[in-house]
Amino acid sequence: MFITTLISQALLVSGFSETAGAWENHQPLLPYILEKLSDSDLKILSRKIPTEFEPSLRKRYETLATSLQLHPHGKLLSTAPDGKIATGAQLLAVALDDPDYGMDQDLPPTADPEGDRPFMGGLTGFRSQGFRHMFFGGWKFSHPIATFQIPTRALGQSPDRAALTGQHARELLHTGDFAWGLRVLGWSAHYIQDLAQPFHATQIPNLRMVPWSALLSWPPGKAFGNLVAETTRSITNFHYAYERYVDHELARGMSSRFYTCLTGTKPLQGNANPLFLAHDVADHSTKIASELGSALMSVYGKLKQPEFDLGNKKGDLDFDRYLEAPEMQNSKNRSRLDEVTCKALNHAVDSSALLIHWALQS
Ligand SMILES: [Zn+2]
User: N or C: which end of the chain has fewer CB within 10 A?
Assistant: First the structure.
């Protein structure tokens, strides 16, 4: 009990992972999602966006910011390369990344009634959005290692935000507000996609990432504080590196190592209620987190060492050199990392497709 209290207190200023992004960019997932949709969904998404959408963007956002408890100055991503969004699919593409640009940051305490933010990135700045982009389901007696977290209660609003924005999007679409329905639908898909990233569904994906040697630090009274700080540093390093790896691969499009695994499979059938989807995806992420952690340790193990503190720009990862490193060239290690990532991305894609179909058709 004493240990738990100590670590909890230290976490008030720390948090095990200090990044608040899940997938560095969500847009690259859209082509794979579209492939899973029905012809009728695609027909709807090919409709033109009304010309009055762009000029009223800020005003309408501010109204939504009040009803959905968003930051009033959240940035909405700009649109297609020529500055105009032409179709529903293009709008959905930009909407998928909107939530990482300020709408969930620097919110008043009323937005966080459970007090989750201190454990999930802090109260201000970019990391303060973490509590709406992650969900740690709570420690479970039946899976004590896979669900280890501090505090032991469930933390984070991500499933609730997916549900709130998903339901609102469907209402807008059904009342004929095509453009704003899609924009808000993209936000809902963003939260669900975040949960498909195991670092967003577990506080410590694999206990091997914890630098236990910090417990030996001096003086003894500070050992637990050092353990928390060192664990935060280590897990943040792996989180950053993983995001960059996935982003780098997805940006390669058809040459991506994930291309084959994300294409050609049948669309899923099932319960598409956004709250159900979000929890289902989070549960799945918890199940594969240890596997991902182990694969990352095998290719990125050195990130546990003190010379790397990527959250504080220390020991910046030279990504090109990293990809050429002998550990990365080991095909067995690389295959393990790709396999587990494929599972995570497939969940992001399948659940997004189910959500979009549900909002457009039901
Ligand atoms: Zn996010």
Answer: N
